[in-house]
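WARN no homologs supplied; continuing
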Amino acid sequence: MKNKKWLYWLVALLLVAAAGYSVIHVHEAEQINSVKMAKQTSIDKKRDQKIARQKKDQKRRARKPVDWSKPSLTGKYPDLTPYRHIKKKKNKVWLNVSARKQRVYVMQGRYILYTMYASIGKNYDGTRNYQQTPVGTYKLQKEHGPEYYDATKKYGAKYWTSFSGHGAYRFESVPFDKNGKVIAKQARRLGNQRVTKKHNIKNYGSIRLTVPDAKWLQENIKPHTRVVVHGKKSDKEFLDFLY
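OK structure emitted
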């Protein structure tokens, strides 16, 4: 009988010890999880604050013509280093191009890292094929260059980067004439959403940016980066990879 009581006490002690260990383990796990959540919350808060500052800055600057010689936003361009090795498509860096808003958004998953003023032709009914902006999903290509001049079109641009047709359709700066002088009338259309069929942007399907934006894109957005180009209306089918 005494042996049984001793055994009962031993089992009870083991159960108490196990329960105590479990409580301690759960508490430690909760602390670790709490630290991770606090860290992620801090990261999210800083990102949201930065996005809010960018929107405020863009609204302020939208009241006057865009300066083609400066970045679209004040402050530094985003550091893309932390996103270089992400494997999931929905979390990678990509470019979202909106002809309706005349903007190019540098995205990381669903988040906007940077907004660029752009000059993009809209595909109205009757727009000739060679003047249409390619709409759909593409990948940034290896072809790029510091500048070019096309005598047949009577303009050139700086820091061009191909996204389709191996040089046929490009991200590039505002246009320059044969003497290397900016064509101011066209440069002033950057970010201007009042694009009509009569006064369309005739840039042969390419996407124009400020000179610093085009340079930064060429140097920092790597080949094979996804490029999604929307037409006059937003087309969600091009964003399936986010869902």
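The longest strand covers residues 155-164.
OK
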